[in-house]
């Protein structure tokens, strides 16, 4: 399996956890000292903060979340992943608007061969 396929599989599992509304599972994709930088809320560093950020995001009426790897590379136990994300977010008038952007992540390979995210930076297509 190529690196791009490995990371897409990881992101597919993350999206499944996200769609299930499982903040603890979403946070488990990150290292304990991992961090998310996002235009949708304050920076979140560490498992508890990442879980809390996801709890906040789950309060939005969101559907059709997708994350697609655009490019990726690795050197040793580190990898980077550029992905596009999108989701339909409910507005105040009960209509849905498509929110989209990119995310750039740095990941570390674990001793069992799996990947965990150290940093993610989300970048809205609107900013």
CATH topology: Nuclear Transport Factor 2, Chain: A
For the biggest sheet, the summary is: 6 strands, mixed
Instruction: Give the low-confidence spans.
Output: none
Helix-strand topology string: HHEEHEEEE
CA-CA gap between termini: 35 Å
Radius of gyration: 14 Å
Helix content class: 25-40%
How is the quaternary structure best described? single chain
The average pLDDT value, as a whole number, equals: 94
Q: How are the strands of the largest sheet arranged?
A: 2-1-6-5-4-3
Q: Specify the CATH architecture.
A: Roll
List keywords for this structure.
single chain; 127 residues; alpha+beta; Nuclear Transport Factor 2, Chain: A; six-stranded mixed sheet
Question: How do the strands and helices of this protein lay out in sequence?
Answer:
Layout lengths: L2 H17 L3 H5 L2 E8 L6 E2 L1 H12 L3 E14 L2 E13 L5 E14 L5 E10 L3
Parallel strand pairs: 1-6
Antiparallel strand pairs: 1-2, 3-4, 4-5, 5-6
């Amino acid at each position: 399996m190529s690196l791009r396929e490995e990371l897409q599989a990881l992101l597919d599992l993350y999206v499944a956890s996200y769609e299930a509304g499982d903040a603890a599972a979403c946070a488990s994709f990150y290292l304990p000292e991992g961090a998310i930088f996002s235009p949708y809320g304050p920076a979140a560093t560490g498992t508890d903060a990442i879980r809390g950020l996801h709890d906040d995001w789950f309060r939005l009426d969101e559907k059709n979340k997708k994350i697609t790897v655009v490019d990726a590379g690795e050197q040793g136990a580190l990898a980077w992943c550029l992905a596009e994300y999108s989701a339909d977010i409910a507005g105040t008038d009960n209509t849905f608007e498509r929110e989209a952007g990119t995310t750039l992540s740095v990941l570390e390979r674990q001793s069992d061969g799996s990947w965990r995210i150290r940093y993610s930076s989300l970048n809205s297509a609107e900013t």
